[in-house]
Amino acid sequence: MFRFPWERTYTGVEVTQPCCPEVAEFEQHISRCIAFAARQFPWERTYTGVEVTQPCCPEVAEFEQHISRCIAFAARQYVSCLCKSYFLAKDPEHYADIAWSLALPYDESFNYHPQFSGYTRGESIKQADAVLLGFPLQYTMNVSTRANDLSYYESVTRSNGPAMAWSMHAIGHLQLGEEQQAEANFNKSYQAFVREPFKVWSELARPSIGAVNFFTGMGGFLQTLMFGYAGVSIHLDKLQIDKPRLPPGATRFKIQGIKYVGAKLTLEIDKESTTLKVSSVDDKWPLSMFNGKYNVTLVPVELTGEGPFPITARPWKDCKIPADVIGNNNLRPIGA
Question: Does this model's pTM top 0.70?
Fold first, then answer.
């Protein structure tokens, strides 16, 4: 299997220390993260011709390897259509068949996603894993299934795991409207991991340390603010703002410099209102937003209500958007 190295140099080869060969062998989530980013990038780049900002992928563990492959395979079919290039995606229909035939573990009796085929309920895990289906992968599922994934894995995630696990749980609860559970996980994601006096993050909660200046934990914290409390989400065909709210204890929350399809946006949230400011747009790619009643040209606007408020651009070509369907080990139906 081809994969990106866990630790690499400029040459791209694996340079993990000889002491720990198992780390290089089993730390596979880098490849999954890159597969997901690769699927996002061609869409947003070729759909509009303009580069847009991307959400940084959190730790994506081995559970995601089939899902991320499916996503990347489906994207090849779409990119091949955009570029009319056989060389870019040879036999794209074949890759769509592969994507459809990959399996996603699901337990119907408990209405949740086991971490892997053969997983035993009650077995402890290190960090957020199956819950990443909800975010960042945004895989479509029943609300009850996602709620069960969150509640179950919170009960078996080990207490001395890394910070970003609780960030992903916080985002999940916010997207389900469960603010008390979200706040508890948000606080859990940073309070025991930030070291005084310089606010340096560590991998493990006090009194343990682990890796120091732990960017992954910081990234999870920032994602909770951006994609959780601010309600921003990036989809194949739109940027969406849904249920923006203040983080715990905050009186004002501002995200400046959101770049999407050539536009620069600022989202401001306070106790009274939420305002979306537009500092610039690209005339070649006008954006529109659904305000709850109508699709309107994107201009500075006060957002009323919880949303969702989708912001969309004009399609570049008439190519079918990947369906993001994991086929549960079945043959792909004709036309799918």
Answer: yes
